[in-house]
Amino acid sequence: MANFDVLITAHISEQGVRILEESGDINVDIKADINAEDLKQIIGNYDAVITRSGTTVTEDLLENPGKLKIIGRAGVGLDNVDIEAASKKGIIVMNAPTGNTLAATELTMGMMLAAVRKIPAANNSVKHKEWNRKKFMGIQLYGRTLGIVGLGRIGGNVAIRSKSFGMKVVAFDPYIKKSRAEGLGVTLCESLDEVLEQADVITFHTPLTDETKNMITKEHIDKMKDDVVIVNCARGGIVNEDDLYDSVKSGKVFSAAVDVFMNEPLGDHKLLELDNIFVTPHIGANTSEGQRDVAILICEQIDNALHGRSYENAVNIPFMKSQLSIEMQKYFEMIEHMGHLVAQVIKGRVEKIEVTMVGSKFEEDFFERTFDIPFNYQPFTVAALRGYLEHSVRETVSYINASFIAKDRNIDVVETRTSSYGKFNDLLVIKATTDKEEKVVGGTVFPDGLGRVVVFDEFYLDMVSEGTYIYFKNHDKPGIVGRVGTVLGEHSINIAGFELSRMKGGMAVSFVSVDNEVSNEALKDLIDVDGIVEAKVVKF
Ligand code: NAD
Q: Do both 38 and 144 map to the same domain?
């Protein structure tokens, strides 16, 4: 009996499909090359859909997502998937980024060699019965400088291979650690210009993002050495096609090799006019090994995700809670509780949520930031947002969509780190700002493994974030606590614990842990107690 339905909208390797079929409870439908309209009609009947570049997943397609939980891309590129739209619907988007790394790396090496030795043109010439050796004077790679933009998986593998050709390799990638470049024997440059100015051959290996689109225009090409060679096997649009055409035509660029284009298929394009531009039809991933490996990877991931096992390469979940240490999982749960607390006591419309990670425990990023999603926070910030937003948002708030919902609501989300906070060394703090007030809540995890709220505005507390509390704020004067006890007694509410913090002679805050539901009448009677300025129910 099939528990899950998976739709595959492309031709993928049989070895991948078999993984799903053999799982026992997954029904697999293959509708390769289905059109968008038909897909929209049926997409909601599936738990997961596996696509390739032929299927564009738009916001419209996901309008009624039904039971769809996962979109899997059998490959790397996700520029044809509206990740933001999927995230808002709580749909996991995953890809198979490692399956075709070597295929794309090897194509890049081939394109580089083709471009410096004009191999495709020489081939054509001989096939046209010419024998013109002078025309095909090339450039030697040995001793030249290769500039790599984007030193990720493919960029790194291109670096390794190019070094074996005797090339010096420099790279620009502002998001990787220096140690990665050092490990590859690559000089990491501080700016793109530094690479442009010194490289003889420049190859691009970044995703297509707002930052990398038109990363290379005429202005950049002018900064490059004369007779530079440009290779783009990453994504169309990183190198501006019109400007590339002009610079190859003018002779500034010796030659260019391009596998990827702004609009594919390419059709009748002016890049095809020039002998020194070598093109291939987006075949970077096209090796039988590459295709097999991406299909296996995406199908394994989907099988695992559907069955609640851990999986990799979800691009819109910036982290997996289970990958945090046990201690950090407690902090993670703690800050989500703190988000609940802030949401339940704050007045006004929230404008800004600031999460501060205090202490050496939080110095490093817990997960590498991925670049396919625009709102990329550390897990604690996402948990804080989720806790907070759950009280004000109608739709289900998940770790996937929390930061997108915050953005939609124009909430300014800020993530900071500091070494200490008041008397605390290890602390997570949420500061929320609304049009009416600012609220600060700090929490930590004690050695007993229990998370406790220890900061509430200017007050220090020691409150376990579990169960139901009545929070109230009052002037610090005699008789109030006794009166509160009486009111709660009158409403048959049993007090389980009492946490009070005060500024002597000023204000005091209390969190009364209670065993029973608190009615509106009980709350109203509390607010009526002389000296109490506000009272609310807080549930964790
Ligand atoms: P990756 O995520 O491992 O590496 C991308 C690197 O780009 C990262 O290190 C990232 O820090 C860096 N980066 C992001 N923004 C940058 C910026 N503004 N400036 C400089 N560096 C930046 O990805 P990958 O697997 O190496 O893939 C690289 C590219 O190759 C992707 O665009 C992918 O879609 C493409 N690709 C193409 C084919 C093909 O068929 N031609 C096949 C596979 C991959």
A: no
